[in-house]
Specification:
Length: about 525
């Protein structure tokens, strides 16, 4: 599976090549610098050793055979004394010449001979100044020798003495080269192991990207259910989580659009059928029939208008700008609600406003929800019966806190409780859950006019604030509807979501058929 174009490398391959390439470069630079220092150090050490041997010859010549400060006067005695007292290493050899003829050389077996013709030719071809030394190299006998040749002049000695020290620098360099190849082999093995491990690790890290690519290839407007399976916590998995969350939002938006269209088609079909049927049966020559049909058609148009308005309200509830929160005095809120609901019907309206203080919420939306609950109370209660609007704070271990959160309210330190109680017909326990669904109505309410969207709107308003709505009812005795609104934040969840994508991300409105 490629994460690049069809003609390019995959992201995994590119990262692997980059990682292995950087490791190889680091190993190579380390080796080059390290062994360059070792080769340079070898050259300096060989030169120091050669110069030290010549200096020892000079000091011995000056100290004399009796070490009394009287210098040697015989070159043979000097060379014999030095060779007898100095021990050459296995890679080192001494040679003494008088008037160009070989006289003495260090004993022992070595991989090279210092009296080889190549060495003698180098000595013969190298001009020496009195009391000076010259260092040169010669390739001979399958190795490289570094040779120092020094002119040795003694008082009262007429012969020309030459002292030669040769070190097998080729063998010493070979030792370093063996370490170079060992280092290269270990480095290559390390690169192979590191590359294999990097391949496995990158495969695991980039798996969400491959899943993401597969998901994008499979997603279509007809099927938005595909998700990326992720585990762990990295930047890549965070991208996959965000992708899944984006798909959730898109799927919710598509689902709500489809639901809106289905609801509109379902609910508008009946009034449209009524309109068409009455229009077809209209008798233009009969004024009374025209008037009656006109009244019926206008009623049906008004009902469709209310239905469309309610559907649009529920659709807007899913948008981030549905709420316009502001700091509101809860006592004044209860009074404003009371002023509006008293005109809904002939009831004994009562207000029990126990909540005080301020909270950030959308005052207009909350009033709309309370008015809807009060309108329901009027529909299902008798004229003159009591209907009470109450407000209060619930917090701590109050059972209502648990009930609010059980119904979907987000956790908060306290909640503003707004409740409407009536003494009407009540709702059977088996039907209390479905009354908040869209077009969901109790069987006992089938004769009451309405679209079945009122309580769905109330629930949408409550959930947009991060709250919840619930009902307690006893059939034949009445009902109590309660909204719980979180009261510990500066802005409701819908206001916070406005900043994001303009789509509601949490607490989706529950819907029904």
């Amino acid at each position: 599976m490629r994460l690049a174009g069809d003609g390019g490398w995959t992201v995994q391959r590119r990262l692997l090549v980059m990682m292995v390439g950087m490791m190889a470069l680091g190993i190579a630079l380390t080796g080059v610098l390290s062994f360059a220092v070792q080769f340079r150090s070898l050259d300096e050490r060989i030169q120091d050793d050669l110069e030290q041997e010549i200096q020892e010859v000079s000091r011995l010549a000056e100290s004399g055979p009796l070490r009394d400060g009287e210098p040697f006067t015989d070159a043979d005695a000097l060379f014999v004394s030095f060779i007898e007292t100095s021990v050459a290493s296995s890679n080192e050899a001494f040679l003494a010449l008088l008037d160009g003829e070989r006289r003495f050389q260090s004993p022992g077996e070595r991989d090279f001979r210092i009296d080889h013709a190549d060495v003698l030719d180098l000595i013969a071809s190298t001009p020496l100044e009195p009391g000076r030394a010259v260092i040169d190299t010669v390739d001979t006998q399958g190795t490289t020798l570094t040779v120092i040749m020094a002119d040795v002049r003694l008082p009262q000695e007429e012969r020309e003495g030459t002292f030669v020290v040769a070190i097998d620098s080729g063998a010493l360099a070979d030792q370093i080269w063996r370490r170079v190849w060992t280092y290269a082999g270990v480095g290559l093995a390390s690169l192979l192991v590191a590359g294999a491990l990097a391949h496995v690790v990158l495969g695991r890290l980039l798996r969400p990207l491959r899943e993401l690519q597969d998901a994008t290839a499979q997603i279509s407007p007809e099927d938005l259910s595909r998700r990326v399976e992720v585990s762990g916590s990295t930047d890549v998995t965070a991208l996959a989580h965000r992708f899944n969350a984006m798909l959730d939002r898109i799927e919710d938006g598509v689902r709500m659009q489809r639901q809106f269209l289905d609801d509109a088609a379902h609910e508008l079909r009946t009034p449209l059928t009524i309109l068409r049927g009455n229009a077809e049966l209209l008798r233009p020559e009969d004024p009374e029939d025209v008037t009656a049909t006109r009244t019926l058609l206008l009623d049906e148009v008004d009902r469709m208008q209310r239905l469309v308005d309610d559907l649009l309200m529920l659709a807007r509830a899913q948008r981030g700008d549905f709420l316009r929160p502001q700091r509101t005095d809860v006592t004044e809120l209860a009074v404003e609600c009371m002023e509006r609901i008293t005109s809904l019907g002939d009831r004994q309206w009562r207000l029990a406003a126990h909540a005080e203080g301020q909270v950030v919420l959308d005052r207009q939306r909350l009033i709309q929800a309370v008015v809807q609950l009060a309108a329901n109370a009027v529909k299902f209660s008798e004229p003159g019966s009591p209907v009470e609007l109450g407000s209060g704070w619930v917090e701590g271990k109050d059972p209502q806190v648990g009930r609010a959160q059980e119904l979907g309210a987000r956790p908060a330190t306290r909640y503003l409780s707004l409740c409407v109680s009536d003494h009407g017909t009540g709702i059977p326990e088996t039907e209390q859950a479905r009354i908040f669904e869209r077009f969901g109505r109790a069987e006992s309410a089938s004769h009451v006019d309405g679209s079945g969207l009122g309580l769905a709107i109330v629930q949408a308003i409550a959930e947009a604030h991060g709250g919840a709505v619930g009902v307690e009812s006893v059939e034949g005795l009445g009902s109590r509807f309660t909204m719980w609104i979180p009261g510990d934040t500066q802005a409701g969840p819908a206001a916070a979501r406005t900043i994001e994508a303009g789509v509601v991300q949490d607490s989706p409105v529950r819907t029904g058929g």
